[in-house]
Amino acid sequence: MSMATMTDTQSPALHVADSHDLIRVHGARENNLKDVSIELPKRRLTVFTGVSGSGKSSLVFDTIAAESQRMINETYSAFVQGFMPTLARPEVDVLEGLTTAIIVDQERMGANPRSTVGTATDANALLRILFSKLGQPHIGPPTAFSFNVPRRTASGSMTSDKGAGERLVVRNAVYHGGMCPRCEGMGSVTDFDLSALYDNTKSLSEGALTIPGYSMDGWYGRIFSGSGYFNMDKPIAKFTKKELHDLLYREPTKIKVEGINLTYEGVIPRIQKSMLSKDVDAMQPHIRAFVERAVTFTACPECDGTRLSAEARSSKIKGKNIADVCAMQITDLADWVRELDEPSVAPLLTGLQHLLDSFAEIGLGYLSLDRPAGTLSGGEAQRTKMIRHLGSSLTDVTYVFDEPTIGLHPHDIERMNDLLLQLRDKGNTVLVVEHKPEVIAIADHVVDLGPGAGTGGGEVVFEGTVEGLRESDTITGRHIDDRAILKESVRSSSGALEIRSAATHNLQDVDVDIPLGVLCVVTGVAGSGKSSLIDGSVSGRDGVVAIDQGAIRGSRRSNPATYTGLLDPIRKAFAKANGVKPALFSANSEGACPTCNGAGVVYTELGVMATVESTCEECEGKRFQASVLEYKLGGRNIAEVLAMSVTEAEEFFGAGEARTPAAHAILGRLADVGLGYLSLGQPLTTLSGGERQRLKLATQMAEKGSVYVLDEPTTGLHLADVEQLLGLLDRLVDSGKSVIVIAHHQAVMARADWIIDLGPGAGHDGGRIVFEGTPAELVAARSTLTGQHLVEYVGT
Questions:
Q1: Distance between CA 615 and CA 630 in Å, rounded?
Q2: Which residues contact 351 (CB under 8 A, 6 or more apart)?
């Protein structure tokens, strides 16, 4: 960027410090990048565009932001670095002009059961100080209002050395905490269905316990029989009260079994420690199924789900305790704080006021502070993380955003654009990965990657202004002004899914009939109640397949072939063609290269330095033993098949010697969702957010259901790919399925047969149906926010 023209009164020479106004990247080769070299202007807003999988995240996150973070981490002592994640230097020749990077990504917030919106954003910390200062009656320090700190009392003697003699001090100390003793600050208590824990017609030695991992052949069998608390051969139905109590509830007790010191503990406390302390989503599928079957969670009767002890709830300001204020909608809480006039805590009130106003400014004013962090959507989590940076007085830093408009209604995108421009105007460099034309339009500088995805991408196809992008012949340039047109005729419904008196979260006794046999789009501003309506009243019904935005959990050993179940028919086809067993064709089983255990790479730990990853020399990264690679199917070995793209593999398994109908069907679904460029063996950890969601969509389309529910399927999709996804949805409807889509994308609304619009606002200002009808009727009425934005989009 050229500097402003100097006037005569200024010194003519440019100071050398001002000449560093570019971030230079030369020779970036991370993931699929092909020697990318670009120069980005500092203190400007740069938007990175390109089809999903073209290399945007590899350039912005894995190269620029990663190197900035690595260099900052290196300024700490080796001791501190030992506690930090080790970052390897990205594959790049030169990176110059970097500034501190602050990354605001789409990763969901950790679903720790103790984490709420308030604890994740410092709002609770400020409120706890406020109540400890102003709450009546005064009950103690800020910890007395924390549901994560238990109340502890200590008594006894303490010896202290003072001068020549010793003095004995005896005291009763109370350490105040606000945790509800019954539910331990969780807000819910667990109730066990005993019939799901054991079969009472059997004895323990006959395997009466039906809890995963409780086999009588292992240590549990030894502990149970060695404890002597019960007869192992007696059916549980005949246990005495004491025996049943010992089996289920006994406190940890030290016992000796075969000369070894062990601890015996009742089954229920052990399950609570080993299984219920974890986030349900992170559990292995069989343990999750057991927990869902055996355990019911109900609001704690002692604290009414507030997580706080009676003492913490007794202290009030203006008639409200801390649980009451955390349950308020944040916009209402901000008004309540505004009315508190107390000079003694003025700075605290100012800070709290600013924090709560930031929530409203960013479009999250409809949340409450006691909302569990794990229930936020990807877009809400990202905006919650942004709140920390809104009032920040840091300047000259690089803010990196990953699709900040996810989950936002077109009405909210305007507010997000204002925030991005505010950050830039404070003198920061703002880098945004984005697909929405509304955000691309405000960019000072655009970098378009492509031309395709995966191995067909990784190059800069355009760099310059938004006007230049429009005139360029890249995919983004051609599609940036695409506008969907309303359907001329809409399908008629074959029936209706009735919802009556829906009141989940903010819904206000909603009655609605969702038409079946058509493409029905549910829309409305963020927080208007769309997910509450669909998750609360539709998703659990029989025959409904719900495809949400939840992250795919996969290690670096997982890939599209293992995740979709594609590898099973491929292994069987190889085994049949060569007369050997299928396990040889799994890199996680018998066929694995012994040197790298089937990972394809060898990791060398270097203590506090970055872990070095090098390709395995034995198998040259192919992951299989040499003997396995001699077995062929259709002239290709298993490593060559896993290196194929979905499109190649679809052709390969579709005809000829390698014809495998089961594999071909799965590959067809992957191609349908626009993943034709992915290679079958690419680790899941390297996929972008949009790619993971489409992989999930392709997998779940195989499930037998008559109604498909999709939550924002256009997330992470380029304008050109949205068209392909809409074609897929149309094909699903034409094949006799009912498709319900929660969407903000105007192109999806325009293609709908029926629209249900919730609103008019968010939180308690929403939760009502403000429109039902066809897209053409919505455009004609222009009565809702959605209608107004759809009119602008289709240009009628």
A1: 21
A2: 126
- Tell me how crowded residue 558 is: count the other CB atoms within 10 A of its CB: 16
Task: Please say whether the beta carbons of 753 and 489 come within 8 A.
Answer: no
In sequence order, what E strands does 128-223 have? 152-162, 165-175, 188-192
Nearest to 100 by CA among 42, 159, 176: 42
Cβ neighbors of 39 (< 8 A, separation 6 or more) are 22, 23, 24, 25
Q: Do 712 and 743 form a contact (C-beta atoms < 8 A)? A: yes
Cα–Cα distance between 295 and 291 in angstroms, integer? 5
User: Tens digits of per-residue pLDDT, 147-174?
Assistant: 999 998 877 766 666 665 566 666 677 8
Rounded to an integer, the average pLDDT of 496-516 is 93
pLDDT band per the 50, 70, 90 thresholds, residue 4: very low
Three-state SS at 740: strand
How is residue 291 written in tokens? 């927990």
pLDDT of residue 702: 80
Q: What is the pLDDT of residues 46-93, one digit of tens each?
A: 999 998 889 999 999 999 999 999 999 999 998 888 888 777 889 999
Distance CA 266, CA 193 (A): 15
Backbone angles phi, psi at 202, to 5 degrees: -105, 160
**pLDDT over 70, % of the chain:** 93
What type of residue is 356? L
pLDDT confidence band for 3 (50 / 70 / 90): very low
3-state secondary structure of 81: helix
Q: Which amino acid is at 58?
A: S
Residues 6 or more apart whose Cβ sits within 8 Å of residue 577:
631, 632, 633, 657
In one-letter notation, the amino acid at residue 598 is G
The CA distance from 366 to 793, in Å, is 27
DSSP per residue, 622-664: --B-TTGGG--BTTB-HHHHHTSBHHHHHHHTTSGGG--HHHH
Q: Where are the alpha helices (DSSP H) in 229-345?
A: 241-249, 267-274, 285-294, 310-314, 322-327, 330-338
- C-alpha 217/C-alpha 310 separation (Å) is 46
Q: How far is residue 235's CA from residue 225's CA, in Å, rounded to a whole number?
A: 14
Q: What is the pTM of this model?
A: 0.82
What sign does the dihedral 98-100-102-107 (CA atoms) show? positive
pLDDT in tens, 400-450: 998 888 888 898 898 889 989 999 999 999 999 999 999 999 999 999 999
> Given its phi and psi angles, is residue 302 left (phi above 0), alpha (psi -120 to 50 degrees) or beta?
alpha
Length of the chain measured in residues: 796
Quick one: DSSP state of residue 15? P
For 507-535, letters b (16+ CB in 10 Å) and e give: beebebebbbbbbbbbbbbbbbbbbbbbb
Neighbours of 277 (CB within 10 A): 13
* Identity of residue 30: E
Which residues make beta-bridge pairs with 756? 522, 772
Rounded to an integer, the average pLDDT of 547-576 is 86
Query: What local confidence, expressed as pLDDT, does residue 6 receive?
Result: 45
Name the one residue in this structure whose structure tokens are 């079969």.
199
Residue whose C-alpha is closest to residue 657's, from 631, 640, 634, 637: 634
Residue among 145, 149, 192, 179 nearest 302 (CA) = 179
Over its C-alpha atoms, the chain yields an Rg (Å, rounded) of: 30
**DSSP H helices in 463-511:** 466-471, 475-479
Q: Which residues share a beta bridge with 759?
A: 768
Nearest partner of 55 among 458, 431, 401, 455, judged by Cα: 458
Distances (CA, A) of 379 to 468, 551, 683: 30, 13, 25
> Mean pLDDT, to the nearest integer, of 706-720?
87
Q: Which residues contact 672 (CB under 8 A, 6 or more apart)?
A: 698, 701, 728, 731
Nearest to 563 by CA among 653, 675, 718, 638: 675
Average pLDDT over residues 588-599: 90
